[in-house]
């Protein structure tokens, strides 16, 4: 009925006044009472997907580079660096920059990188790693990527790797990309293709189970972009144990898309 793991459900039982009784070793519920309890809730008392993402990524910031390696590799960086989209005099925004996987990799190719992330701990990791690598042209902003404190038409390129599937209404993020980009500016997006791996909701706090080409393209076209490129990069298999079934943790495909603000 709740479509969450047993662990999450037990946590809910401890934290909320769920209509339930434990008889002996077993929890007992009335379906009717649960429906009434659900419908009596007030959504404003509950955290949004933004604060969920912030809490989760604040918690895992120190281990993010290790966690990330099971899901995607340097292919995305190589694709961006060889795309011909980057020019020296550009201002590049990396939305949902995390510890700077992309931002640090492209910093030597453009004048200025602005890394935006909702998690202060992720941004601290990015700053630490950039300093260790001697990178000096990354500015950082702790902000919701759907409401960025940057002027309209002020940047040349927006990149977002594995950011969009954390956004409840992705079109709000796409609209924001369009607002801050100069006319003729580009978006370089990398994200997961549609998958059936429910584990990622729990393990990585993903909101969307990847995207189809059509749904992403529709959002961009609605927000005034022209799609220039879409490529599926294939699945990340390297960490997969032999014998693991399709749909297990590593079985996710990545796509890249480039679009121009008209
Ligand atoms: C899967 S990680 C990807 C990080 C980085 N781009 C990378 O490739 O390693 C997603 C990042 O998006 C950030 N994020 C999630 N929701 C966000 C939001 N609404 N606004 C800004 N950043 C957000 C998270 O804090 C996290 O750092």
Please provide a written account of the structure.
There is one protein chain. The protein has 262 residues and is α/β, with parallel strands linked by helices. The chain has two domains: 6-45, no CATH class; 49-261, 3-Layer(aba) Sandwich (Rossmann fold), CATH 3.40.50. Helix content is 34%, strand content 24%. It has ten helices and nine strands. It has helices spanning 6-15, 31-39, 49-60, 64-68, 75-81, 101-106, 120-132, 170-180, 199-203, 213-222; strands spanning 20-23, 26-29, 91-95, 112-117, 138-142, 155-161, 181-192, 225-235, 253-261. The strands form two sheets. A seven-stranded mixed sheet has the order 5-4-3-6-7-9-8, with helices on both faces. Strands 1-2 form a two-stranded antiparallel ribbon. β6, α8 and β7 (181-192) form a beta-alpha-beta unit. It is elongated and about 70 Å long. 32% of the residues are buried. The structure holds S-adenosylmethionine. Residues 50, 53, 57, 68, 96-98, 101-102, 117-119, 122, 144-146, 161-163, 166-167 line the site of S-adenosylmethionine. S-adenosylmethionine binds at residues 50, 53, 57, 68, 96-98, 101-102, 117-119, 122, 144-146, 161-163, 166-167.
């Amino acid at each position: 009925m709740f479509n969450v793991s047993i662990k999450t459900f037990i946590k809910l039982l401890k934290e909320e006044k769920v209509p339930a009784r434990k008889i002996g070793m077993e929890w007992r519920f009335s379906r009717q009472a649960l429906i009434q309890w659900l419908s009596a809730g007030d959504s404003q008392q509950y955290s949004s997907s933004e604060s969920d993402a912030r809490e989760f990524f604040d918690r895992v910031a120190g281990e993010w580079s290790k966690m990330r390696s099971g899901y995607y590799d340097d292919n995305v960086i190589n694709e961006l660096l060889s795309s011909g989209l980057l020019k020296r005099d550009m201002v590049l925004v990396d939305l949902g920059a995390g510890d700077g996987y992309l931002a640090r990799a492209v910093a030597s190719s453009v004048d200025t990188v602005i890394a935006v992330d909702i998690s202060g701990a992720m941004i601290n990791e990015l700053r630490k790693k950039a300093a260790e690598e001697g990178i000096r042209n990354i500015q950082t902003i702790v902000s919701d990527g759907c409401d960025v404190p940057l002027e309209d038409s002020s940047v040349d390129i927006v990149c977002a790797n594995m950011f969009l599937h954390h956004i409840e209404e992705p079109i709000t993020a796409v609209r924001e990309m369009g607002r801050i980009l100069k006319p003729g500016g580009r978006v370089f997006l990398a994200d997961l293709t549609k998958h059936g791996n429910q584990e990622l909701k729990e393990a990585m706090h993903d909101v969307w189970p990847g995207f189809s080409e059509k749904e992403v393209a529709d959002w961009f076209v609605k927000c005034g972009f022209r799609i220039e490129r879409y490529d599926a990069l294939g699945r990340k298999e390297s960490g997969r144990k032999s014998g693991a079934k399709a749909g297990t943790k590593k079985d996710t495909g990545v796509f890249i898309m480039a679009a121009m603000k008209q």
